[in-house]
Amino acid sequence: MSTVEHPAPPSADRARIVLPDAPADAAARLAAGAAVAWSEPLTIRTYEAGTPSAYPMYLDQRVYQGSSGRVYPLPFVESVADDGVERPWQAIHLENAYVRLVVLPELGGRIHIGYDKTTGYDFFYRNNVIKPALVGLGGPWISGGIELNWPQHHRPATYLPVETTIESAEDGSVTVWCHDHDPFDRMSAQHGVRLHPDSSVVELVVRLHNRTSERQTFLWWANVAAAVNDDYQSFFPEDVRYVADHARRALTAFPNADRPYYGVDYAALAAATPGADRIDWYRNVLVPTSYMIVDSQQDFFGGYDHGVGAGFVHWAERRISPGKKQWTWGNAPFGHAWDAQLTDDDGPYVELMAGVYTDNQPDFTWLLPGETKTFTQCWYPIPAIGPAHQATPDAAVSVDRSVPGTVVAAFAVTAPRDGARLTIRRGDEVLASATVDAVPGVPATLRADVEVGPAVHAELHDADGRLLVAWAPTEVEDDEPWVASEPLPPEEVDSVEELYLTGVHLAQYRHPTRSPLPYWTEALRRDPGEVRTHLALGDRDHRAGRYEDALAHARVALERLTRRNWNPQDAEAFYLAGLALARLGRATEAEAAFGKAGWDGTWAPAAGLELARSLAATGRNRAALRVLDSIDGVVAHDTRRDALRAILLRRLGRDGEAAWVIADALAVDPLDATLRVLAADGAPASPTGAGTPTDAGILYDVALDLWKAGEAEAALDLLAEVVAAPVTPAGSWRPVAHYTAAAILDGLGRAEDAAAERRAARASDLTRAFPSGLDQHDVLVAALAAEPDDGVAALLLGMALYATHRREEAAVLWERAIAGGVEHPVLLRNAGLAAYNVTREDDLAWRRYEQAVAAAPDDARLRYEQDQLASRLGHATAERLARLDPVRGLVLTRDDLTIEYVGLLTAHGRAEEAMEILTTRRFHPWEGGEGRTLAAWDAAREALGLPLADPPANLGEARPRFVPPVARHASGVTDYFATSLPELLLFTRGETGGR
C-alpha cells in the first residue's frame, strides 16, 4: 500500500481563503455521515472589475476562441483595479466526509474550490484571490475552479450572478442549483452541483433549455483549472494518438508532439533534451497552447501531480461528451506574466476542459425551439496511484509497466468498498489477487510478474462481484486524422449543396470574419428555388426583424416542397412562415401554418406551443389545451408548455390541476422563472424553496411569456417590477420595459396609459440600455408608429437594428433622433460609428464624434474611439498628440489609449515622457492584445538609443520565445483560422461574418 503525501501548507505571508466550519445543524449531520450544503459569505481579496461601458460594442469581426467575439447586448468591461480589497462574496458550501466545495453564485455559479479532505489536496486550482484579467468574452475573467461555459466559450455570463437554491433529496444527496438566462438569446441554463453522502464524486447535473421560438446553437465546456508545476501531468485515454488545435486547423501526435505546434518545434527540442516533446507535461509546453483530443472512444481524463501524489479524474459518457482539452499560458516568462495577471501567489495552472455535445472550439450544436438537453458530468480526486489509465464513476486505476516483466496496478475508489477484490489476470489465468477494504483517498495496489500483452487485464470488483473498473492494453489504428481547410470562394464551389452547407457552417460556428451570405446568394443564383437555402436566408431575415422577407423565402421554399407533395418530410418552411406571419399580426394565417408544421414530429412541439399561445391570447382556452395535449407525447419536457397549461387551467377554474402542473414541473426544473412567478400567485412554492426572480432581465422575460399567453395585466405588473429593479452590470431594462408596457396597453385600447408609458421611457436613464431580440424590436417599432418623433425610441431601435446588420436603417434612425433634438452622447457616438462604417461619410463621422466628446468631455472611452477614428481618417500624428496632451490625465485612465499616446510621444521626440509612463503605470493586457505594450516599450527604448531589454513587470507581459500562428496576413486579411485578434475592430467597413 502506498503512503499518501500531503502537500505542504501555504507560507504564512500568503493570502488564503479561510473556509468556515459548517453551521451546528449541518455539522451534526456531517458528523453522522451526511452530505450537507449551506450558504455563508466568504471574504476574498478582490481586484474589482471596472464599470461596464455605457456604449454598445458592435465587435463583429472580433475573433474570440476561433469564433465571434460579438458581445452586444452585453455591456463590455474594459478595466480592472490595480489594488485588491477584502470583499465578501456570496458563497454556497457543500461538504461530505471526503470533499469540500465552494460555489460562487455572483460569478456565474462557478465551483471555486474543490478540496480533497482525505489527502489535503485542492484537486481544482484554488485561486485565493478574485483577480480578473481582460480575457473574457465580456471583459473580466478569473482563473481557478470550474467555469461552466455555455452557450459559447468563455461563458458570456461568467462575471454575472446566477440564481441559486439548495435541494436535499431523499437519497441523502444535496444539490446547489444555479440558473441564468444567457445574455444573448435568453436561453435558460441550470446546472446543479451535487454531492452524495458516501462518495467523493462531484456530480454536475445540467439542463439546457431553448425557451425561444427559434432554433439556436450552443456549446458546453466545463473549464477545470488545475495548479501545475514541473511534476504535473495531464492524462488522457490511451487510445488518444493525436490532438488538434482550435477548429482542427493544426494537428500533432500525442503525447509526443512530432511536428511544430504553435510555433514550437517539439521534435527538435526532444533531439537536444529527451522527453521535451511530451506535451502532456506542463513543464514542456512553452507557449500559450490549446489541444483537443481526436477520436478517443473513452469516457475519462484528468490530471496528476507526481510531486504531491494526488490528482483528479473527469468522467462523462463519451456518446455525449467527446470533448477533452488542455490549455495553458505556457511554462515560460510570457505565460508566467499572464499567470501574474490572474493571481497573486497561487502560481500557474492548466485548464482541463470537458466538452459535452462538442469536441472542439468552436464546435456548436443545435437546440430546437423548446428543446431541453440534460446530462451529467462528474469529477473526483484521486490519491497517489499515478495518472489514471482507466476510470469509471466508481474507481480509477493506474497501471505501471515501467519495469519489464512487471505490472503494478493501483486503484482508487470513490466510495467505501469493504471486501473489494483486486485482480491481475492474463486471459482466464489469475496472476495476482487481493481482497481489501477500499476507501476513498487510500490507494489499493497489486503487483504481478508478467509481460504486458493484449490478454493482460487489471480489474477491481466489489464484494458482490460487480465490476468497478477494468484496464486492458489499448490497440488503435494510427491513421492520421483529417485537418480542416478554408472553404473555397463561392464562385469556385462545385455544387449548390456545398454552397448551402458552407453557409450553414459559417453561421453555425459563428465565424467572425466570413459571412454565409455570399455562399447562399451564389446558391440561389444557380438554383433560384433551392429550398434549404431559402430557409436559411428566411431564418436570418426573421431574426433581423425583416418579417416580409422571411415570409417570402418561406413561400418560395413551400412552392417547391409542395409542388408534388403537400405533405413534405420536413415542415420547417411551414413553421418559419408561421413565425413571420405571427410577427406581422396575421394570426389566422399563422395558426394555419403552425397547424401544418405540427404534422412533422420534428417541428410539432415548437409549432404546437406557438399555436397554443395564439389560441390562448384570444381566449380560446379549451382549443389551446387540446393542442398542448396533442404534443405532450412528442417531446417530454418544455417548461414553457407547463406554464401555459397552468395558465389555461386557471382560466377554466381548474386551480387544483394548475397547482399540480406547476408543482410537478418545478420538481424537475426548480428554478424555471415563469413557473416560479406562477407558483407565487396561488400555487405551491417550488419544492426547493426558491422564491420569485428579482433580476430585471429575467422578470422581463417572464412578462413576455405572460403577454404571449394573453395575461396582459399580469405582464404589466411584472414590467412595473422590472422598472423598479436595480440596474446591474448586465444592462438596464427600464426604457424597453416602459415601451413594452405601452405596446400592451395599446393592445388593450388604453391609449392614454400607453402614451404615459412612452413618456416614462423617454425620461428614463438610458445608461447601458441595449435592446435586442424580436420582442424588443417589435415594441420599439410600435412606439415609433405611435409617435414618429420619439427620439429615444429611434435611438434604441437603431441599436437593435445595428446589431442585426440592418445598419443603413439604424443610421437613418440615429440621424432622425439627432435632428429631433436628442443630444445623448451614446446617440452621437453611434451616429458617428455608422457614418464611418456604413454610409462612409467621413466628415459626418468626425463631426458626430466631436459632438459626442463635447457632450461627455470626461469620457475616456469616447476619447479613445475619437483617436482611433482620427487614425483611420489619416489625421496627422502631431494633430492627434495635440488633441490628447491637454487631457493627459484622462488618457492615462485607459490602457489602450495610453499605449496610443505613448506611441505618439515617442514618434514626436518625447520618448523620455513615454518611458516614464511605461515604467510607472500598471498595465492590464487583454487576450489577443499581447505585444501592444511590449512594442511601445521597444520603440521608446530604441528612440532613446537604449538596447533591447525585457519589459518591467508593471507592463503585464513578457517577450515571447516563439512566433504564434498568424492572425492577420500582411495583406491585411484576417486568417480564416485565427483564434484571436489584437484589435476589437469597432471601426470596420463592409459586411462581416455572423449568424
Estimate percent helicity.
Answer: 25-40%
Strand order of the largest sheet: 14-15-16-17-31-27-26-20
Give the termini distance in whole angstroms.
57 Å
**How much is the radius of gyration in Å?**
29 Å
Helical run tally: 29
Tell me the name of the CATH class of the domain at 24-48 and 84-382. Mainly Beta
CATH architecture of the domain at 24-48 and 84-382: Distorted Sandwich
Global mean pLDDT: 94
How would you describe the overall organization of this protein?
There is one protein chain. This protein is of the alpha+beta class. Among the domains are: 24-48 and 84-382, Beta-galactosidase, Chain A, domain 5, CATH 2.70.98; 395-471, Immunoglobulin-like, CATH 2.60.40; 860-961, Alpha Horseshoe (Serine Threonine Protein Phosphatase 5, Tetratricopeptide repeat), CATH 1.25.40. 34% of the residues lie in helices and 20% in strands. It is built from 29 helices and 39 strands. The strands form ten sheets. The chain has an eight-stranded antiparallel β-sheet with strand order 14-15-16-17-31-27-26-20, with no helix packed on it. The protein has a seven-stranded antiparallel β-sheet with strand order 13-19-29-28-25-21-22, with no helix packed on it. Helix 19 (774-786) packs antiparallel against helix 20 and helix 20 (791-803) packs antiparallel against helix 21 (807-819). The longest helix has 15 residues, at 547-561. It is globular, with a radius of gyration of 29 Å. It starts with 23 loop residues before the first helix and ends in a 52-residue tail after the last helix. InterPro entries: DUF5107, TPR-like_helical_dom_sf. It holds the Pfam family DUF5107.
